Amino acid sequence: GRDRDGALESTSHGKDGTDNWYRSVVLCGGSTLIPGVEQRLQHELTRYAPDGCIPEVYAPPERGHAAWFGGSILGSLAVVSNMWISKEDYDENGPLIVHRKCF
After folding, report:
1. Is residue 84, in this structure, part of any structural domain at all?
2. How far apart are CA 46 and CA 52, in angstroms?
3. Superkingdom of this entry's organism (predicted)?
4. How far apart are CA 19 and CA 52, in angstroms?
5. What is the pLDDT of residues 39-94, one digit of tens each?
6. Residue 58's beta-bridge partner residues?
7. Which of 14, 28, 49, 78 would suit a FRET pair with 84, their CA atoms being 20 to 30 Å apart?
8. What is the pTM of this model?
């Protein structure tokens, strides 16, 4: 693997020069349901936050399904319908159709 900062270490570089990033952390995904994750992240973020900044970690109860909800909303928007790829499109163009329609 590559020698890179982890998620917590990379936060120390500051996202926008303010404390806003630390005050708007939202947990989502099934692995965030592991007991103690919210408290652990809160503790670790406090170590990396600028002086005087108290990180806020929000863990909504439905976070285990948040990605599904987001995908469902995205899929229902008319603006993404031009990105849909039919089997016929894929059969005719192969994997390159993804780059043509989605990027």
Report:
1. no
2. 10
3. Eukaryota
4. 9
5. 999 999 898 888 888 999 999 999 999 989 999 998 899 888 888 899 999 999 99
6. 26
7. 28
8. 0.61
